[in-house]
UniProtKB/TrEMBL annotation:
This is Metalloendopeptidase. Keywords: Disulfide bond, Glycoprotein, Hydrolase, Metal-binding, Metalloprotease, Protease, Signal, Zinc, Zymogen. It comes from Paramuricea clavata. Binds 1 zinc ion per subunit. The active site is at 150. Pfam families: Astacin (PF01400). Residues 1-24 form the signal peptide. Gene3D superfamilies: 2.80.10.50, Collagenase (Catalytic Domain) (3.40.390.10), Galactose-binding domain-like (2.60.120.260). The keyword Zinc applies.
Length: 466
């Protein structure tokens, strides 16, 4: 919006659209709000061109949070269980990107999570630079993907179906849109929205559902790809994470290789996790899911909790947890030839077995080659091969580390059930008196009936206390 009295451009973006299949009006589609999702009275006085101008500013490469750190506070009106849901949504952003979230101390710009009875909305795309901005989560807005979606707006994401190339992928059925809500389906130009080269994502958590603002229960958005589903609100998609990493220029998730050290010497120091191909959201996996033998092929498949777990060592070696075997290109060529398959081997100490993961791909440190899916259309059991072309975002991988410990009850010795994780951080001493706070490194929670902490985080994890 444009504040006509001060001449400042402020954009209020709100209302996420859950993928429900009912024909009735949902709380997230309030017709009393300007264009359905702009919840400030001055917008009613602003011209359509003014609002468009505000959207242009917000949707371009402005408003990034410095160093990828979003500062926040949580309203005291939000209870402990809902706070945990906010932390879980933040944790997913953090696990799949380089973004971080810290509680505000004295920072000028920050996001306040509120619980007003006015729907699900965020009053900015990216950091607005004017101090406090808000994410509101009313009743009905506490789904995991819904919170992820609203945080996405505050980080700088516009709705997926507003992209300039959307007509190649979806059709808008204006005849089914409620009167006055047509503006919710506008398309913007390349100068207004920059998707950073990431292809259109039907699976984006930022995409409207099929029947958003429907007046008759029929589809308002129809994917042109047969069988494509839109409007999911369960998780951050691989392309969402990829775009965030590109937007904030995330660096490698591993450190520079050090003096060669075999995995057996640093076994207890290497985190375990999944190696994820961000565009397809599929993980490294031994072909067939069995404990592999020598030169057993690595494929991309669903992320399996046991057989798909790897260790990533500081010197760049990647070890399969169950077998103890290490990732390397088949054969002894250095550098490997194009289309050499990636396999598992008993030998773990060789220049071609040391990798770096970053947005250019899974790189072999000793050469200018990288791992990539054998085919652009990635399905289960797609082989992973080595290639010299390593600069496309579609080859990006990430290492998603798993936690090593849970929270422990200091009095009873019972463990807490973990609901999500941050990648890094070792807790310092327990801190007294933190109540309903962000359960982060070194902080404690306590029961409402005790002045002393009952729970301590042993690592920087987010947990649900049973």
């Amino acid at each position: 919006m444009v504040d006509l009295s001060e001449g400042k451009t402020v954009l209020l973006l709100c209302l996420i659209f859950l993928a429900v299949q009912t024909s009735g009006t949902r709380p997230e589609e309030r017709e009393d709000l300007f264009e359905g999702d702009l919840n400030i009275p001055a917008l009613a006085e602003a011209s359509r061109d003014d609002v468009e101008f505000g959207m242009v500013l917000a949707a371009r490469r402005f408003g990034r949070w410095p160093n990828g750190v979003m500062t926040y506070v949580i309203s005291s009106a939000i209870g402990s269980s809902n706070r945990q849901k906010i932390f879980a949504a933040m944790a997913e952003w953090r696990a799949k990107t380089c973004l971080k979230f810290v509680q505000r101390t004295s920072q000028k710009d920050y996001v306040e999570f509120t619980k007003q009875n006015s729907g699900c909305w965020s009053n900015g795309i990216g950091r607005n630079g004017h101090g406090k901005q808000q994410i509101n989560l009313a009743n009905g807005c506490w789904g995991h993907g819904t919170i992820i979606h609203e945080i996405g707006h505050a980080l700088g994401f516009w709705h997926e179906q507003s992209r300039p190339d959307r007509d190649k992928y979806i059709s808008i059925k204006t005849e089914n849109i409620r009167k006055g809500m047509e503006g919710q389906f506008r398309k913007y130009s390349h100068g207004q929205i920059d998707s950073l080269g990431v292809v259109y994502d039907y699976d984006s958590v930022m995409h409207y559902p099929r029947r958003a603002f429907s007046k008759n229960g029929r589809d308002t958005i129809v994917p042109k790809q047969a069988g494509a589903k839109i409007g999911q609100r369960s998780r951050l998609s691989g392309k969402d994470a990829l775009q965030a990493n590109l937007m904030y220029k995330c660096q490698s998730t591993t450190v520079s290789p050090q003096k060669t050290t075999t995995p057996s010497q640093k076994k207890n120091m290497a985190p375990e996790g999944y190696i994820i191909h961000l565009q397809s959201e599929k993980c490294f996996y031994p072909l067939g899911g069995k404990v592999p033998g020598e030169n057993h092929p690595i494929v991309l498949s669903k992320c399996h909790k046991q057989t798909g777990r790897f260790r990533m060592y500081e010197n760049g070696i990647i070890q399969h947890v169950l077998s103890g075997m290490c990732v390397h290109p088949t054969g002894d060529c250095s550098p490997p030839e194009d289309n050499t398959e990636l396999v598992l081997s008993k030998s773990c100490d060789s220049p071609t077995r040391k990798f770096v993961i970053n947005l250019d791909g899974l790189l072999i440190h000793s050469s200018k080659t990288c791992a990539r899916p054998a085919y652009e259309s990635v399905k289960d059991d797609t082989r992973v091969v080595i290639h010299r072309y390593c600069t496309a975002s579609k080859f990006a991988f990430a290492f998603a580390a798993l936690p090593r410990t849970n929270g422990n009850n200091l009095a009873l010795g019972k463990s807490a059930r973990q609901i999500s994780t941050y990648e890094k951080g070792v807790a310092s001493k327990a801190v007294d008196g933190v109540r309903n706070g962000d359960y982060n490194d070194g902080f404690c929670s306590h029961t409402l009936f005790s002045k002393k902490p009952w729970w301590r985080l042993d690592l920087g994890e987010q947990v649900s206390f049973n």
